[in-house]
Amino acid sequence: MGTGLWRDGHMVQVSYENRTAVPISKALYEERGYQPPFDKLPEKAEYDAQRR
To answer: Would you list the DSSP string of 1-52?
Structure first.
């Protein structure tokens, strides 16, 4: 199962074990039960700033 990295509006970037990362909708993210919860994900700008 994938792990949420960051959110941007109603989209979530999800990373999978094979290091593939794909954007999916908030609805699909929540439907599939990905972690961490959507509201706990950093915004994309915040995520990018932490990685610098």
So the answer is: --EEEEEETTEEEEE-TTS-EEEEEHHHHHHTT-BS-GGGSPBHHHHHHHT-
